[in-house]
Records
---
Amino acid sequence: MQRIVDIGRRIELVPIDPHFYDITIGLYQQQSVDTTTGKETPFFLVHTYSRVAGVADRIEEVRQTMQVLGGMLKTAEGLLYFPCGSAHQAACRRVFLEACKLTPGTRVERRPLWTLDKKSQLTVTVNSVGDGIYAVTADSEGRGAARRIAAIAGGLAKLGEMKDTGADNKDTVAFDCGHAHDALVGLLLTRAPNVRIALREEEMSTSRGVLSAPSQQM
Ligand SMILES: [Zn+2]
């Protein structure tokens, strides 16, 4: 038996959707409690209070994009969740922001597990090594490469709320849940080399969310 109470807590906001009549779209987190086991499972709701014609299709588009970019699943009611059952809230917020940015109609594909790091001109690859652990490597060695690898691993850790796997392993990060999340890591990897910019963007969106009174804006 599962029971879900109200819409949930808003954890992210796109105040103006440039792709659909400037509507406001929110991401809400809900906690579903299994009354038999007492186990709590986090679900995510993409929601707008807009009633513009076609808005349901736009919301569904964002949900489907999030499924691909974040490797998320969807309940019959349209709630999103990760297969491992963990919240991964920071990563989910990032998936939501990126999904809303994509121009409608473009083919959505999960991001690859490698990226060209503009700063070092290295091709940086992330490999899943099991148990939710990812190792960052580059196509060249040396001190400079090691520094960039550590910086990018640190970026992944921040954006995905991943943990360091020990002082000696500055090139590996891991998900607490112990499960692989390749799609998620691919998405975060596009932002990891510029983690400061990505985090500033999140802060701005959060402060915008605070400034706009939810009762009036959404
Ligand atoms: Zn997980």
Note: The first helix runs from residue 55 to 70.
---
Amino acid sequence: MNHHVAHACSAYFTSPFDNATILIVDARGDDVNFSIFFAQGMQLQKVVSLSRPLNTPMFWEGVCVNNFKMIRKEGSEIAPWSHMYPSTGPGKIMALAAYGREDPDIRRQIYADISLPVVLDNMTEQYRFGGTYNWGQDLSDTRSAESQAVAAALQHWTNEDLISAMRLAAKFAPLENLCYAGGRALNCIATSHAFTRSPFKRLYVPPFANDAGIAAGVALAAYYASSPAARRPPTPFSPYTGPRYRRDEIDAAVASAPGLSTAPVDAARVAELIAAGKIVAMFRQGSEAGPRALGHRSLLARADLPGGRDRLNAIKRREWYRPFAPIILRERAEEILEQVIDESAYMNTSATIRPEWRERMSAVAHVDFTTRPQLIRRHQEPYVYEIVERVGAATGVPAILNTSFNLQGPIVETPKDAVDCFMCMAVDHLVLDDVLVTRA
Ligand SMILES: [Fe+2]
């Protein structure tokens, strides 16, 4: 199946819409990087599919490797980050951009460099030509004003470029609903910036907007093509598609590590611990599809945890400038955030925290007071919703900090992964389904 058709199916068939314009933007896939589809009922129709010469996602990848030196060295082989840590490099530059000042000269240089074609050396997949800012200038010092200004200029370019893309999509397929996917859709700042300036009324970005969604897209396309009578399931799409683990697997994982005690746990107890200032590693039921932890493989804490950002960045060994995101009760979102985008259940849009909430959301506010919320409705995950609701009742803040449960590597999947990761991390408690694990 064509790569962009799979992206489009992953976005549309998991959306709440009966019709939509679909926009796909990524670095490359089956020789195209930009597609527009029109969807009505169960039918998708391709409107435009092309390879744009100004390949913004590819340029980001090149800048990660060539300028910010985000390269993992393993043995003698040097592999670009994109093959080892999909999507984490551009996410870091997006975070750094909030620190950068506006600099017209740097913006001009970005615009000049991005117009050079990116050429890959197939032997090493290094970005030899193009995909480089100012001839490979070293920007790896993320505390330097220049590195931050380059990140800001790149983000600015990306915001503006996506506005054009969304407006073009609206011209070709003028519907009110927009489904948006492709690796570029992980840039939640650009997504929100462009969507709020587009003619579209509603936005949906799937939890697996990047290539993680291709398998689901192929499966959904095959399902709907297999029977003309196929209809969408009566219950909305859930991102918790991973396998569940049995109680004996959980018990074996706990037994594998020394000095752990266990007790029963429910949402009320988790909320109590979080409200008391504890950091809780959460492992419940099936894991989330896509790159974001949405409460099943998450570290949870108060949204106003003192020194929360720096503490958690140290615990997870992340870069100093990276922010954390909250889960917020959907019906309280407008109180806390400016410009709420309705379907933001998967941490793929961005909004600004209102001034009167910034102190109470201190651990999840970025330096420019933006945040990337998971807006939760009760039916989407009743247990996680209850935790946030109870924390809100106890503390007055109907939001909690949510970050992925991992240490540099992939998000934990099995109970054994969870216990191993917990043993390496300075967090207070671990929840394994209905078992609360604590260091004795
Ligand atoms: Fe893709």
Note: The domain at 247-439 is CATH 3.90.870.20 (DHBP synthase).
